TrEMBL record:
Protein name as annotated: Signal peptidase complex catalytic subunit SEC11
Pfam families membership: Peptidase_S24
Provenance organism: Ananas comosus var. bracteatus
Keyword list, A-Z: Hydrolase, Membrane, Protease, Signal-anchor, Transmembrane, Transmembrane helix
GO biological process: signal peptide processing
InterPro entries on file: LexA/Signal_pep-like_sf, Peptidase_S24_S26A/B/C, Peptidase_S26, Peptidase_S26B
Any one GO CC term of the record: signal peptidase complex
Membrane-topology descriptor: Single-pass type II membrane protein
Annotated localization: Endoplasmic reticulum membrane
Functional summary from the UniProt entry: Catalytic component of the signal peptidase complex (SPC) which catalyzes the cleavage of N-terminal signal sequences from nascent proteins as they are translocated into the lumen of the endoplasmic reticulum. Specifically cleaves N-terminal signal peptides that contain a hydrophobic alpha-helix (h-region) shorter than 18-20 amino acids.
Length: 177
């Protein structure tokens, strides 16, 4: 009888572990699917500063798409700069085509429509004057206001993240199904 109960408990724990693994795997499959559909390495980003207000506020989630269409001045894009981990959301103010190679290069900053009037070249890698297409992660094609605050709070207050993970883990372990 004791062996039977122990066997059931082991099966229950294994079932919970497999369920958790399936949830994580499903999330990864959805993320990779979004990457394929949008053509962006990061199809969803959170606005972390107020530099794009009033258009996008801190905590808004942006949906990105990266098509083959040329990037034009005035578009809002998300870009990565060499040596920085966190992507930046700003507006394209100038598109420059190099005469020798025909490659397009971009200058970005916030303009009068946005909240930051400084030149973005201070954010670029040392000696870099322009961004190239490989720096652009995607164009902003939509947004969801305020939902990204969950990410910001968990990043700025790690204790909340650990408490949430612990509570979810406890929920998975103690659930009956």
């Amino acid at each position: 009888m004791v062996e039977s109960i122990r066997s059931l408990q082991i099966r229950h724990v294994l079932n919970q572990i497999i369920s958790l693994g399936m949830i994580v795997t499903s999330a990864l499959i959805i993320w990779k699917g979004l990457m394929c559909v949008t053509g962006s390495e990061s199809p969803v980003v959170v606005v972390l500063s107020g530099s794009m207000e009033p258009g996008f506020k801190r905590g808004d989630i942006l949906f990105l798409h990266m098509s083959k269409d040329p990037i034009r001045a005035g578009e809002i894009v998300v870009f990565n700069v060499d040596g920085r981990e966190i992507p930046i959301v700003h507006r394209v103010i100038k598109v420059h085509e190099r005469q020798d190679t025909g490659r397009l290069m971009f200058s970005l900053k916030n303009d009068l429509r946005d909240n930051n009037f400084g030149d973005d070249r201070l954010l670029y890698a040392h000696g870099q004057l322009w961004l190239q297409r490989h720096h652009i992660m995607g164009r902003a094609v939509g947004f969801l206001p305020y939902v990204g605050w969950v990410t910001i709070i968990m990043t700025e207050k790690p204790i909340i993240k650990y408490l949430l993970i612990g509570a979810l883990g406890l929920l998975v372990i103690t659930s009956k199904e």
